Amino acid sequence: MTAAGQFERGTDGPRVILVGVDGSPTSLRAAAYAAGLARRQRSRLVAVYVGEPPSMVGWVPEAQAVAQDAAAQVGEELRRELQSAAEDLGIAVELRTAQGDPVTELSRIADELPADAVLVGASEQAGHRVIGSVAVRLVRVGRWPVTVVP
């Protein structure tokens, strides 16, 4: 509120929005929602792609190289899609990539920024109902507001 007791418009809201993307339909919807929010709030938008390293036990070196190349291709395709969408909306987006556990890496980057809001797509995997999805695990961390986009 201002000194006169009136609310100021356009000064509230997140300054840094982090969105987790992995190429799934729900993560792309989360990215679209985050982009619209960033545009309306004039926030910085940071998209994060976390490649989960495959279990390397018993893999031959050629298979490891193929898996790493595939992850790099997914990251590059996401970069192109996000950049195109951001240009259409007239906003800037920064894409960061990491390898490891998605919750650990999203949390680390959100803390580094620091992020005011974290958005992710809802999991489409049935097994996550038992062990917990990335979204549920991020909510449990509880350091930022987490929005889960269906």
Automatic annotation (TrEMBL):
Residues 15-150 form the UspA domain. Transmembrane segments: none annotated. CDD domains: USP-like. InterPro entries: Rossmann-like_a/b/a_fold (IPR014729), Universal_stress_UspA (IPR006015), UspA (IPR006016). Belongs to the universal stress protein A family. This is Universal stress protein UspA. The lineage of its organism: Bacteria, Bacillati, Actinomycetota, Actinomycetes, Geodermatophilales.
